[in-house]
Amino acid sequence: MAAMLCLSLAPFAATATGSSEEKGPSMENYTKPDPTELRRRLTRRQFDVTQRGGTEPPFDNEFWNNKSPGIYVDVVSGEPLFSSRDKFDSGSGWPSFTQPLEPANIVLDEDHSLGMQRVEVRSTHAKSHLGHVFEDGPAPTGLRYCINSAALRFIPREQLQAKGYGGYDGLFEPRKGSSMTKALQPEVAILAGGCFWGVEDIIRKFPGVLETDVGYTGGSHENPTYQDVSSGKTGHAEAIRVVFDPTKLSYRQLITDFFRLHDPTTPNQQGNDIGTQYRSAIFYTSPQQKEIAERVKNEIGKAGKWPRPIVTTITPAGPFHLAETYHQDYLLNNPNGYTCHFLRNW
Questions:
Q1: Most buried in the list 90, 107, 177, 204, measured by CB within 10 Å?
Q2: What is the model's pTM?
Q3: Would you call 6 a catalytic residue per the annotation?
Q4: Per residue in 35-45, pLDDT tens?
């Protein structure tokens, strides 16, 4: 899943966090069925991954882009493994987590296959092969548990009680005085920096970004289509709506990186794309966002990061109209698609 060397299990064992308190079905129920039952119960891919150490294709699996709240359990035994609260978009094409939900249900083994040293992740009770863990993840753990969807079964939050995992429902409720309260109050940013394919492809990989959508905003035409906006007559800009965790990604950092990923000095143009729909704009959703955006714009302008004046407009957010389905995650689904965006090194 990545050609990254991991020479010791110590860093992973030391940083594993979570609760070992039993919250789901009793531990004795986390058992591995006999081979005949396994073959009957599992699909061919699930059997190959969990029993033979196989790897499913990136972006062609069930949970890589799943953003629903809930927990992930071993497809063989049902033992709880990971939570959606610790899931992030690594851009790898596989489900990625910063830490296990229940460290006691995770076993780490040295893996010397494929001519490199890696750390394999297995489940404790079923001994299922899950994936590998790498040291290139986001804060706070710095780890990336790269897991095969075929090794997992997802239990949505609304089904936790009915499926016997009701003890985990509290994970998704903010508690007064706990650090979870902030994490469960995401912030929304709306940005326009040219063709929304490239802007989304970069921003969705930022640690702390929970969700991205592309659409149209800043115009007066109701329910605009791509054809409407492309005419340049509706006043809309191609934009991206970013839902992010402000405890992991500040709005200031997001805006700073926004000025790095596109050219904010070219009015109504990015690369070969010309028209008002490709303008540079920040649509703030609160007075605090307005103040931060204006401050960052001024600081970057004074620092001479760009050779020409910054023309980015900063205006109140209005209605955001989702773009057509084929535009969402376009460059994930079309890796060779057009983009003129990249992050500058400042």
A1: 90
A2: 0.53
A3: no
A4: 899 999 999 99
